[in-house]
Amino acid sequence: MSLTKHRGLNRPRLLCTTCAIVLLCFLTPAHRPIPTEKPTGACDPFGRTFAGYSFLVPDIINKNAAYAPFFVKWDDYYQKNYFDTDLQRDDNVQEWIGRFCNLPTAVDVDYVVYRSSINELISLREAALQKGGESLLPLGLTGNTFAEVLAINGCTEAIDYLMFAKRCEPHVTAYDGWELPERDVDFMQALIDEGQGRFLQTKSHFFRQRYAYQLVRLAHYAGKWQETVDLYNYLLPKFDRKRPSILYYWTLGHLAGALQKLGKYPEAAYRYSVIFRNCPSKRVQAFRSFRIRTNQEWETTLRLCQTDAERATLYLLRAASSRTYTVEDFEMIYRLDPGNPQLDLMLVSDVQQLERVFLRTPVTELKYGTSSRAAQRQEAAKHLLSLQRLARQIAKEKKTPNPKLWGAMIGYLELLAGDEYAAQKSFDQARKQLKAGNSYEKALLHQIDIWELLLEILNLDGSAATADQASFRIRSYDLFKRVPSFEPFLQDFLSARYAESKHPGKAILAAYDPAAITYNPRMDVLDDLLQLAQSDNPILLEEAMEIDTNPARIMARLLEIKGAYLFSMGQPEAALSVLRQITAVEDVRMPKFSPFREIFDEKIHRPITDTLLLNRREIIEKLLDYEFKAKASVAMGKPVGAWYYYLIGLGYYNMSYFGYEWEAMDYFRSGYNWMRLPQGPIFPLRNSPNGNRENIDVSRALSYFEKALAETQSPELAARAAFMAARCQQKQWFCNPECTYKPGSKQIPILPELYRGYYDRMRRYSNTEFYQQIVKECSWLRAYQ
Amino acid sequence: MNTDCLPPGRRGTAFFFWKKNAAPRRLGGFLFCLALFSCTQKPPVLQPAVYHWETQLALSNFEKVHLDSLQCRYLYVKFLDIAREDDAIQPYALLEVLDSTGLDGRTLIPCVFITNNVFQDISESKIDWLAQKTAQALQSVGGQFAPNQFFEIQFDCDWTASTRAAFFLFLKKIRSRLPANTQLSATIRLHQYKFPGQTGVPPVDRGMLMLYNTGDIDDPEAENSIFQPADAQKYIHGAAATYPLPLDLALPLFSWALVYRDGSLWKIIPEPAPGAFRDTTLYTPFPTGQDSRYLIRQAGYLGGQYLRAGDYLRVERMDTALLRQAALQARKIDLADDARLAFFHLDSAIVRRYPARFLRELCETIRPE
After folding, report:
1. Does residue A154 carry a pLDDT above 60?
2. Helix H or strand E segment including B210
3. What number of C-beta contacts closer than 8 Å exist between A and B?
C-alpha cells in the first residue's frame, strides 16, 4: 500500500476534465516525483549523495597523465579506462614483442605467455630443438607468429623459462579472495631452488631478470620475507639492468612487500614510491601499499630518496591520501620538481574540492543537506586565497609544463572567491594568450566559455524583473545544455537570489516543483506568487507551472491554496474572504468534498457518495452557517443547537489528518507520518523546502463535540458526540511525545487517564442504539469498556 | 472480526490475543497467569560474550585470562568483511588463525561484516552468487577450527530502506547454503530497533542490538558519537515493548580518535594511546580545558595517518560511568531469555581498561540475579 496520498490521485471523478488537467499539471506525480519522507534522527535510511556542482571539463588536463587517476575524478572515466584494464599484462606482452624485434603480434605473444598449456610448450620446445621446425608446431600454436619466431630461431631458453613460469604460476597467482590460500610452501621452496640453478645457467639477461622475478615472487608468496630480501639482493646484481624493464619494478614490489612485513616501513615506502613514479602497471598496488606511520619513518624515507624528483613523489603520495591539498604541498613539490606534470592534476583536483564548497547556495544546503559547515568554509576560504597567490606565482614563473592552465585557473579561483570583476578580467587576459588552432588551447578556450557563462548566471539580479527572462535566455544556450551542472545550479542560485530579494514565492518555484508550495504553505510565498500572477510579466509562474497562459486559472489555484491553508489554521472567515476572490468561472471547477458524514472507521480514502458535495468555499460557508444556527438555537433553548455543534465537530474531524476528507484542508498527506505523529505537525519531506505540514490538531473538533455534549438532552446524540470526542482524545494521545503506541501494533493502545475520559463516559450511554452498534464495530471501544 | 478502529496499515489484521466478544475478564485472567508465570520463571542472567574483530586470531595470555575471569562462553569472531569497491563485490580480511589455544570450551560464532553498498542496485542472481561465495568463505575460514560446525552465524550490515530487500533476500539465500539447523543472527542498529515497521526485521533467528553509535560521527560538534545516554534514550523510549526477534545486546568498549579536516570527518584512528596527546607543541586541547578535543598545531603522523596543522581531532571513549549508564538504560530493552551481553571488542589494550569483574557487574545491572 502506498504511504502517500495525493488529491489528484484520489478524486479525479469530482473534477471536470479541464480542471483535472490543470490539477494534474500542477500537482500530480506526472510532472514531478512523489516526494519521499525522511525519518528524523541521526540515521537517514535514504542515504543521499550529492557531489556538488562542477564546471571543470576533463579536457583541460591530460586525462591519460600517469597519475591522473589518483588525483582527479571525472565520473567513472578512470574506472573504465585505467583501473579496469590489465596494464601489467599489456606491458609485459610489449616487452616480449620488443625482445623479439617486434616480429610477433601482441595477441600471439599473449597466447603463448599467458594461455598456452604446458603440453603446447613441450611441443613448441621440440619444434625449437629442430631449428626451422615451425611445421612441427602443435595445432594450437599453428599460425601463431610468436611460436613461429621461437621455433624458427630455436629459442629453447625462452621456452624453458615459459615452462618454468607456468609451473610457478599456480603458487603465486592471487586467489579469488573467497577462500584462504593453500600454498604448498615446500614445493614452492623446491621451485626456488630449481629456479636458482636455471638462473645461473641462463645466458640471456632478459630471461635472468624474469627468473629473478619468479623466484622473488615465489619467496614472497610463500611468506618467507627474509628469503625474499636475500634472493633479491643475491639475484639482482647478476644481470644487466641497463635496458629498462617493467620486471625490475615488479620484483621491487615484492621486495617492498617483504620489507614492510619485516617492519622496515621506510625502506618499503621508498620502494613503493619508486614503483609509483616509474611503473604504471603496478602503480595502483604501490599507491595502496605505500604506508608511513610516524614522523621518524617519513624523515627516514625522505633520506632514502636520491633525487628531488623522488622526494617530490613522496610528497605527492602523502598529499594524494587527502581530499584536499595544502598550499604547502604544492609549494614543496613545485620547489623540488617544478616541471612535475602532476602539479596540474593537483591543481584541478583541488579546485574540484573548492567548487564543492563555494558553489553551494543556501538552497543547495536545503535540498541536499549541509555539507560544509562554517568552519569548513572558513578554512576553505583561507586555502582559496593561498592557492590564488600560488597560482599567480606559478603562472608568472612559467616553470610548469602547462602555465596557460594556471593562467586560466586564476580567473576561476577569483570567480569562486566571489570577485566576479577580477574573474572577467583574468578570463579576458587568458583568452589573449590562447590560440584556437591548438587543440589543447581550444579546450582551454572552451573551458573559459563555460566559466564566463557561469559568471553570467552569477550576475543575475534576483530583485530585477528581467532576471526571469534572462534565466530563460541562458537556458537556451547550447553550452548551458551541454554542461550537466548548469541547470541545477541555475535553479539553486536563482532561488537563493529571489529569496534574498524578498521573493519567497519565486524562490520556491525556481528551485522546486510547484507542488512544493502546497506541502507546508507559507503566506509570504503565496502572497508573492499572487502578486506575480497579477503582474504584467508572469512568465516565471507560467513556465514553472507548465500550463497554458491563463492568469485567471493560475490565480484561482493560488487563492485556493491560500484559502485551504487559512482554513486549516483555524481562520475560516479569512479563508472565506480569500476563496470568494476566485472568479465564478473558476469556482465551479473547484474540487468538492463531503465532510459532514458520520464515518466511524479510520479510513482516509473511502469513496464518497453523497448528494451534499461542497467546494472549500461552500464548506466554510456551511460551517459558519451551522455555527450561527447552533448559537441561535442554544440562545433560544432549542435542542437542535447541539446537533449543529456536533456537525461542525464532525466536519473538522473529517477534514483533519485523521479524517477521510483530509484533502479539504490539505494537498498532500503522508501515511508514513502516522509513525511519528509526536514530531508534528511539520514533518520532514524530501523535495520540500519547508517540510510537510499535516493537520493533526483535532482540538477544534473536540471543542465542538464537547459543546454538543454540554447542550444536548438526547442520549443518542450524547453517545455520538462522546464517541467522537473519545476519538479526538485518542488522536491527541498519539501525538503526545510520551505515547509509546505504534500504529500497526497488534496491541491495544493504553490511554492515560487524561486521554480516556470520553471512552469512560461512553459507559453512560451503553443503553443507546448508537452504543450497541458502535461497540460491535470498534474493537478499541470494547477494550476500553 | 471488525477492525475498523485500527489505524491505516493494519486493517484486516486481528489483535493477536483478542477474539470477537471476548470478555475483558478473560483478558484479566490471562494477564494474571502471565504475571504469575513471569514471577516464577525469571530469565537467567545475561551470558557475557566478546567480539573478536581482528584479521588474525591468536589470543594473548592476558586475553585468555580475561575471558576466563569473565566466564565468557561465547566468542563472536569476524571471519571476513565483504565490501564493494569499484563496483566489484569482494571479500576482505579473511580471518587467519595463528593460534587456537584459549578457544576450547567456548562457543564460536562466526561474523560476516557486509558494507551496505554491497546491496545497492544488486540483481537477484548476484545475491545468489554472493550467498554462495560467502558460504564458501565461511567454510574455508571455518576449516581452521576443529570442529568446524557452528551453531550460529552472524551478519553485520547497516541496511537501509534501499538495500533492505536485497539484504533480507541474501539472508534467506545463505540460510539454504549453510548446514541445516545453523541459526542466523543479524546486528540491529538502534534506529532499526525503534522503527521495525519502517526498516524491516531481518529474516534471522536472533538479533544483536548494538547499543552504541548513537551520535553523528560526521558532526565535528557532536559530544561522543559512540554513546550518549540522551541519544540512546531517544531510540529506547517509544520503541515497541517487544522486538519481533529474540535480542542479544552489544556494548562498546572501544575508543577512537576522529579526525576532521576542512570541517568534515576525514579519518578514524582506532585506539589512540591514552597519553598520545600530551605534547602541547603538537596538540592543543580545544576548546581549552577539554581533554577530548584537540587542534593539530604541527603537521605529523599519528596512528599511521598524516595530520595537518589545523586538523581537528575528537577522542571518544567509553568510560565505566558511561557503560554503567548504558547498562541501566538497557534494562528497559526486552532482551531474550537466554540473551548474551557481547562486548565490542577483544583487544589487550581495551580489556585492560575494563576488568572482568566490572563487565560481569554490567551483566548483572542489566538483568539482576
Report:
1. yes
2. strand B206-210
3. 167
CB A245 within 8 A of CB A207: no
pLDDT single digits (tens) A129-145: 886 666 678 888 989 99
> Best residue in A4, A37, A38, A180 to probe B by mutation, most B CBs within 10 Å?
A180
| Residue of A179, A326, A781 lying closest to B140 (CB–CB) | A179
Contact at CB, A603 and B8, closer than 8 angstroms: yes
- Other C-beta atoms within 10 Å of B23: how many? 10
Write down the pLDDT at residue A34: 38
Q: Residue A725 is placed in which grid cell?
A: 470526542
CA dist., res. A745 & res. B162, Å (int): 24
The verdict on a CB contact (< 8 Å) between A321 and B306 is: yes
DSSP code at position A524: H
Write out pLDDT tens, residues A421-449.
999 999 999 999 887 778 888 889 999 99
Q: Is A746 on the interface with B (CB under 8 A)?
A: yes
Concatenate the DSSP letters of all residues of A303-335 into one string. Answer: HH--SHHHHHHHHHHHHHTSSS--HHHHHHHHH
Which residues on A lie below 8 Å from B16 (Cβ)? 746
pLDDT at B288: 56
Considering only CA atoms, which of A408, A413, A421, A351 is closest in space to residue A388?
A413
Q: Which residues of B touch A777 (CB under 8 A)?
A: 2, 4-5
A160 with A150: CB under 8 angstroms?
A: no
A263 versus A780: the higher-pLDDT residue is: A263
Would you say residue A745 has pLDDT above 80? no
Residues 17-76 of A with CB under 8 A from B: 39, 41-43, 45-47
* Angle (nearest 5°) at CA A251 between A246 and A252: 95
pTM to 2 decimals? 0.70
Domain covering B46-254+318-366, topology: TIM Barrel (3.20.20)
First to last CA, chain B: 43
Average pLDDT over residues B108-128: 95
Q: Does the complex come out with an ipTM higher than 0.90? A: no
> In angstroms, rounded to a whole number, what is the distance separating the alpha carbons of residues B215 and B229?
10
The b/e string for B46-67 (b: 16+ C-beta within 10 A; e otherwise) is bbbbbbbbeeebebeeebeebb
Using an 8 Å CB-CB cutoff, list chain B residues near A180: 94, 96, 140-141, 143-144
Distance from CA of B84 to the nearest CA of A (A): 13
pLDDT of residue A748: 75
Q: Which of A145, A150, A147, A160 is nearest to A116 (CA)?
A: A147
Q: How far is B358 from chain A (nearest CA, A)?
A: 30
Query: Which of A293, A379, A776 is closest, CB to CB, to B301?
Result: A293
Distances (CA, A) of A545 to A24, A28, A160, A557: 11, 12, 77, 11
More confident residue, A545 or A332: A332
Partner-chain contact A785 B24, CB within 8 Å: yes
Q: Length of chain B, please? A: 369
Measured between alpha carbons, how far is B162 from A46 in angstroms, rounded to an integer?
7
Residue A275 binned pLDDT confidence (cut-offs 50, 70, 90): very high
B93 → chain A, closest CA residue: A177
| Chain A residue nearest residue B163, CA to CA | A45
* Residue ranges of domains in chain B: 1-41, 46-254+318-366, 260-314
| Interface contact B6-A779, CB threshold 8 A | yes
Q: Do B1 and A178 touch (CB under 8 A)?
A: no
Beta bridge partners of B315: B257
Question: Is B231 in contact with A42 (Cβ distance < 8 A)?
Answer: yes
The verdict on whether omega for the bond into residue A681 sits within 30 degrees of 0, i.e. cis, is: yes
- Distance from A749 to chain B by nearest Cα, in Å? 10
